[in-house]
Amino acid sequence: MQEANRKFDIRKAPFLKEMMETTQHMWRFGWDERNGGNISRLLTEDEVAPFVDLQQTPRILQLPFPVAELAGRYFIVTGSGKYFKNVKDNPEDTLGLIRVQEDGASIEIWWGLANGGQPTSELAAHFMSHMARLKVDANHRVIMHNHATNIIAMTFTHELDEKSFTKALWQMCTECIVVFPDGIGVLPWMVPGTKQIGEETARKMAEHRLVVWPHHGIFGSGSSMDEAFGLIETAEKAATIYTLIHSHRSGVKQTISDRELSELAQAFGVTPRQGILQLEN
Questions:
Q1: pLDDT digits 0-9 by tens, 210-266
Q2: Active site residue 199
Q3: Going by CATH, does the domain composed of 1-120 fall within 3.40.225.10?
Q4: Could you tell me the pTM of the whole model?
Q5: Is the distance from CB of 60 to CB of 108 less than 8 angstroms?
């Protein structure tokens, strides 16, 4: 009876406030025009229970793909067709709190996605990437996708080879090799929203925390919203510098050498992805 009379207020939930702030930042950066981009954050029941009545009857949606490895897991996700600029003022319409059912074949909607709303159309890529990252990082929590402007621009002007793409970004900012020493995965162009692109993104996520979709955007992952956002932010800053310097007629006159990148990695205790730096013995 006490639980039934309890008033739940999800607007006080730290995970909801975090989603509202992050989506607003991404929209203001110009990374999430219209309904572009999506985020999913893994939650525990302990994080959810104080703010949502888990005795209610949730709405059920069938999944077009099984995710048995995520059975019983809670997520807060952005909605399909929803504008990031509206999340702050109307989170119940633009976000959803979901749980994967025990069979892994359907999800429960516990809050949000009002008026029959659906989770992000990239849910396949998100769920598959969560599964891939959890296998290599038990602290993993966040998958974030957006249309980072200069990353997209760079996919038109740079070869789509992930080793050379990674190295080009490492050479733009001293911090890059320190922030993403695991490099950046690069897919060939593919139709978004499909199981195929979800599977290929997850395959890359097994080795990289950042994956580029050419002419479309970038996927980032992390143990927190700040980490995933910061990874994308750093890569986008490097891509901005790359675009700026390659628009000048004079071109590049100097850069951070492979030897200097190796020295940076040693100084900060990180291991660069093998096969990218060419070092003389």
A1: 999 999 999 999 999 999 999 999 999 999 999 999 887 666 767 889 989 999 999
A2: no
A3: yes
A4: 0.92
A5: yes
